[in-house]
Design goal:
The structure is a homodimer of 155-residue chains. In chain A, a hairpin with a 5-residue loop joins strand 3 and strand 4. Chain A is α+β, with helices and mostly antiparallel strands and 155 residues long. In chain A, 35% of the residues lie in helices and 30% in strands. In chain A, strands 3-4-2-5 form a four-stranded antiparallel sheet. Chains A and B meet through helix 1, strand 1, helix 4, strand 3 and strand 5 of A and helix 1, strand 1, helix 4, strand 3 and strand 5 of B. Chain A binds a DNA duplex (17 and 17 nucleotides) through helix 3.
DNA sequence: ACTGAAAGATAGTAGGC
DNA sequence: GCCTACTATCTTTCAGT
């Protein structure tokens, strides 16, 4: 199944809404040379069918005092199904963990951790992450700069 | 400066909009026990002052046929200012590159690459990424599963 | 700062092509 | 699948506290 049953107009709508979901139906209708009702119906369907998962606000993390982003590469001791699920469940409960990704290769999981600063990260590591059972190692890398940061998928 | 000049109500609004930006002012006003006009004015200010950078639609990547997410760890030959900027600029032009992060530690950059499948990634690597000057090595890791995936910062 | 109410714009619905 | 037209709801503004 390639691109489900999306036509050109659907793709254009998704492209626009990925960039800016505060476009009105009227604005989109103008850009795509369709009526407002058509655009409305398309978007309703794209939401209903799950192409659009949610509409969210993206904040400026520096302004809300989340200056440090860490990528923590985690290696576990065992890889039983139960161990993996347990780790995923527990680590997902920490609000500092924005992403938990199970990976191929040298590490089991990559975590994206947002904290105020290095001290706060250190605290998180010692008092939260490192207390989980079954962890072998955690290697921490930190974001120096973000030349590109997109939520939009190429379509 | 801790949390700029945001009060409790601002924080609550940001929390809500990070989770779901399609809440109406009325819904937010009800939740926070404020008037619609107050909520409206708060949100206007939060946008104007840059706390809210943008409102976007988050798509289901599997539905739009972006099944493979790769993290590509890139090491450059030189680290002159010109070299770094050149790399950042060029790599940011590729639509497959959703994120380009300069990192501390063993690698210079981590790239988040979204492609249809392994073949498409391989193609991207050979024909696009690996053609950039000054690259020493690219190590590719792939996402097996996403137990947690959030755009919302903890606040 | 916050509020209620008015005015204007938008989302959402219905019926027909 | 697309449209026009209508209604409900929401955003936005503003005078008043």
């Amino acid at each position: 199944m390639i691109q489900g049953d999306l036509d050109k107009v659907d793709i254009q709508i998704l492209k626009l809404l990925q960039q800016d979901a505060s476009f009105t139906n009227k604005e989109i209708a103008l850009k795509l040379h369709k009526s407002i009702a058509t655009v409305h119906e398309r978007i309703r369907r794209l939401k209903e069918q799950g192409y659009i998962k949610k509409i969210v606000a993206i904040l400026d993390r520096k302004k809300i005092d989340r200056n440090l982003i860490a990528f923590s590469h985690v290696l576990l001791k065992e890889h039983t199904a139960a161990t993996l699920v347990k780790f995923e469940t527990e680590v997902s409960k920490f609000p500092e963990v924005m992403e938990c990704l199970q990976m191929t290769g040298a590490h089991d999981f990559i975590l994206r951790i947002a904290t105020r600063d290095m001290d706060t990260y250190h605290e998180f590591l010692r008092n939260k992450l490192a207390t989980l059972p079954n962890i072998t190692t955690v290697q921490s890398y930190f974001v120096l700069s973000e030349p590109k940061s997109e939520t939009a998928y190429p379509i």
